[in-house]
Design brief:
Layout: E1 8-14, E2 28-34, E3 41-46, E4 50-55, E5 60-64, E6 68-70, E7 73-78, E8 83-88, E9 93-99, E10 111-116, E11 142-144, E12 151-153, E13 160-165, E14 169-174, E15 179-183, E16 198-203, E17 212-217, E18 221-226, E19 231-236, H1 247-253, E20 256-263, E21 269-275, E22 281-294, E23 302-307, E24 311-316, E25 321-325, E26 340-345, H2 347-351, E27 354-361, E28 365-372
Antiparallel strand pairs: 1-2, 1-28, 3-4, 4-5, 5-6, 7-8, 8-9, 9-10, 11-12, 13-14, 14-15, 15-16, 17-18, 18-19, 19-22, 20-21, 21-22, 23-24, 24-25, 25-26, 27-28
GO cellular component, one term: chromosome
Protein name: RCC1 domain-containing protein 1
InterPro entries: RCC1/BLIP-II, RCC1_domain-containing, Reg_chr_condens
C-alpha cells in the first residue's frame, strides 16, 4: 500500500492570546491559514487561550497564553484547566503528566502516573480514532478529567473506542458502536430526552441498533457519525450549532411579532414566532434533548466530526469540510464573522483543490488537516 503524502494543517478563528494561526497582532482569523511547520504536525489540541501541537518527531510545542516545548511526547490534550502530556518511555510504558496551563512544562506537574501502552499502530496526522487517544488513557479503562479527581476509572465491561469531553458532559463510543453519555444535562447534551444529569455512563436508547463510528462533544452539544455516514446531533442550539433553526439568528435578519413556547412531539423545546410577512409560525429549536438526524447538502456522507464551544465541523467522505454555529471570531472559516444555523461548505479547500482529512475544534477556533486532491 502506497504511503500517503504529507498534508498541511490549517487554522482559523480566535487567536486573541497570540496562538497560531494568529501573529499576536489580531484577535481573529476568518479564513483558513496554513500553520508554520504544518507539514510536520501530527496532532493539534486546543484550549480557549492556547494550542498544543505534537510533531511527527514527538516534540510538544505550546502557543498562546501557555508557552514552552518538550521532547519525547507521544500525545497531548489541552483544556483551559489542564494540559495532559503522555511521554514515551522505552518498552511498553509511558509517563502521564498533568499541568496547570500557566505553569506547563515547568516545575512540578500537578499529577503524574505511569501507564502501560497497548500494542497498536502509530496514528496518522489525519487523526484516526484509536483506543487511548487522550483524554482516554492508553489502557482504555480510565480517562483524564480537567477537574479533580484527574484520574477517572471506567467500568471494566465498557470496551471503549473513543471518549470526548464537553464543558459539563462526556461522550463514550464503545467497540460495538454504541454511544454512552453522562455528566450535566441542563442543555439536553446527554441525549436522553431530559435535562437531568447522569452520574454514570448511560447508553443512548434513541441510537440503539445504529452503529456509530465517531463521537464529538461541544461545550453543551453533542454529535455522532454513523458507520454509514449519517450525522446525529443534540443538545443546546443557542447559536445554531445543531444546524436547526435558532431564534437568535432569525432575529438578526427578520422582524418578528408574536411568540409562544411549547414542547415538540419529540420532546425538544420549540419557540414559535410568527413572521411579520405572512403570519406563518416558524419553529425555533432552543434545546434538542434527543438525537436528531441531520442531512448535509448534496446528500454527502460524513466521516469525521468535531465541536467547539458553540460551533460544529464535519468532514465528508469526499474530503469537503462543512461548518455551522457560532462564527463571531471566524471559526467557521467562511471569510467573515457570521453565524449559521445550517451546514455551509468551507470553499477555501475546494478552491485550493485540497481534500480535508481531519478536523479538531478548539472552543473558539478550528484546525484542519488537508492534502492535495489526487495525491491521497
Amino acid at each position: 500500500m502506497a504511503e500517503e503524502p504529507p498534508g498541511t494543517w490549517f487554522g482559523f478563528g480566535f487567536c486573541g492570546f497570540g496562538q497560531v494561526p494568529g501573529s499576536g497582532r489580531g484577535r481573529q482569523v476568518h479564513s483558513p491559514e496554513p500553520l508554520q511547520a504544518g507539514v510536520d504536525i501530527r496532532r493539534v489540541t486546543a484550549g480557549w487561550s492556547y494550542t498544543a501541537f505534537v510533531t511527527r518527531g514527538g516534540r510538544l510545542e505550546l502557543s498562546g497564553s501557555a508557552s514552552g516545548a518538550a521532547g519525547g511526547c507521544r500525545d497531548a490534550w489541552a483544556s483551559e484547566g489542564l494540559l495532559v502530556v503522555l511521554h514515551a518511555r522505552p518498552g511498553s510504558g509511558a509517563l502521564l503528566q498533568a499541568w496547570a496551563p500557566g505553569s506547563a512544562l515547568r516545575g512540578e506537574p500537578l499529577w503524574t502516573q505511569n501507564v502501560v501502552l497497548e500494542a497498536q499502530g502509530e496514528d496518522d496526522p489525519g487523526g484516526e480514532a484509536q483506543a487511548g487517544r487522550l483524554p482516554l488513557l492508553p489502557c482504555a479503562r480510565a480517562y483524564v478529567s480537567p477537574r479533580p479527581p484527574f484520574y477517572r476509572p471506567l467500568a471494566p465491561e465498557l470496551r471503549v473506542r473513543q471518549l470526548k469531553l464537553g464543558a459539563e458532559h462526556a461522550l463514550l463510543l464503545d467497540a460495538a458502536g454504541q454511544v454512552f453519555s453522562w455528566g450535566g444535562g441542563r442543555h439536553g447534551q446527554l441525549g436522553h430526552g431530559t435535562l437531568e444529569a447522569e452520574l454514570e455512563p448511560r447508553p443512548l436508547e434513541a441510537l440503539q441498533g445504529l452503529a456509530m463510528a465517531e463521537v464529538a462533544a461541544g461545550g453543551w452539544h453533542s454529535v455522532c457519525v454513523s458507520e454509514t455516514g449519517d450525522i446525529y446531533i443534540w443538545g443546546w442550539n443557542e447559536s445554531g450549532q445543531l444546524a436547526l433553526p435558532t431564534r437568535s439568528l432569525a432575529e438578526d435578519g427578520e422582524t418578528a411579532a408574536k411568540e409562544a413556547t411549547g414542547l415538540n412531539a419529540d420532546g425538544s423545546q420549540a419557540k414559535r414566532m410568527a413572521r411579520a410577512e405572512d403570519g406563518a409560525p416558524a419553529p425555533f429549536i432552543a434545546v434538542q434533548p434527543f438525537p436528531a438526524l441531520l442531512d448535509l447538502p448534496l446528500g454527502s456522507d460524513a466521516i469525521k466530526a468535531s465541536c467547539g464551544s458553540r460551533h460544529t465541523a464535519v468532514v465528508t467522505r469526499t474530503g469537503d469540510l462543512y461548518t455551522w454555529g457560532w462564527g463571531k471570531y471566524g471559526q467557521l472559516g467562511h471569510g467573515d464573522t457570521s453565524s449559521w444555523d445550517r451546514p455551509r461548505r468551507v470553499e477555501y479547500f475546494v478552491d485550493k483543490q485540497l481534500q480535508v482529512k481531519a478536523i479538531t475544534c478548539g472552543p473558539w477556533n478550528t484546525y484542519v488537516y488537508a492534502v492535495e486532491k489526487g495525491k491521497s
